[in-house]
Amino acid sequence: MEITVEIIKSLRESTGAGIMDCKKALLETHGDCDQATEILRKKGLVKVQKKAERVARQGIIEQYVHGGGRIGAMVEINCETDFVARTDEFKDLAHNVAMQIVAMNPVYITAEDIPQGNDEEPAQVCLLHQPYIRDPQTTIKDLINTLIAKVGENIQIKRFVRYELGCWEDDKI
């Protein structure tokens, strides 16, 4: 199969990978876009692992309020540079994560945050392990890893808070 510019462009748009990476993956798979996507995904995961130890001190705080002002969330998402923090993709990620927090009410960021001896299911109570509300086949961690592979920087969720009108942890009335 001939590898055309249109096929390369289509793969690049769907994966966010570089032009040469897309071309190499398509050549390796003899033009099979599904296999090329899988190869690019695996390469992206390798990039993500390499970037995980890098310091992420820039970023944004995003808020989302839903239900006529009855439920809201704030989330701090960090990256390595303010350049990435100002991109539309990063802002979209932050907004979608804030919406996820409002919709799914996570308690922890990762499974490592669950106290010892607590039998809670990470997919229920950990933000990074929850299925993404817009695509249940994808977790929040997958969503972040995809952007890490695309922008080439470490991205981390540092903290979040969720408010619901009339709900207080220490309510004893």
Describe this structure in words.
The protein is an alpha+beta fold and 173 residues long. Helices cover 45% and strands 20% of the residues. The chain has 7 helices and 5 strands; from the N terminus they run αααββαααββαβ. The strands form 2 sheets. Strands 1-2-5 form a 3-stranded antiparallel β-sheet. It has a two-stranded antiparallel ribbon with strand order 3-4. α1 crosses α2 and α1 packs across α3.
Summary, kept brief:
The chain has 173 residues and is of the alpha+beta class.
Helix and strand sequence? HHHEEHHHEEHE
CATH arch. level architecture of the largest domain: 2-Layer Sandwich
Instruction: Report strand %.
Output: 15-25%
Binned, the helix content reads 40-55%
The CATH topology of the largest domain is given as Tetrahydropterin Synthase, Chain A
Q: Domains counted in the coordinates: how many?
A: 2
Q: Number of helical runs?
A: 7
CATH homologous superfamily grouping of the largest domain: Elongation factor Ts, dimerisation domain
Number of strands: 5
The N- to C-terminal Cα distance equals: 71 Å
**What composes the largest sheet?**
3 strands, antiparallel
Record the SSE blueprint.
Elements (H helix, E strand, L loop, with lengths): L4 H11 L3 H10 L4 H19 L6 E9 L4 E9 L2 H4 L2 H17 L17 H4 L5 E2 L2 E5 H12 L4 E9 L9
Antiparallel strand pairs: 1-2, 2-5, 3-4
What descriptors fit this protein?
single chain, two-stranded antiparallel sheet, 2 domains, 5 strands, 7 helices, 173 residues, elongated, Tetrahydropterin Synthase, Chain A, alpha+beta, Helicase, Ruva Protein, domain 3
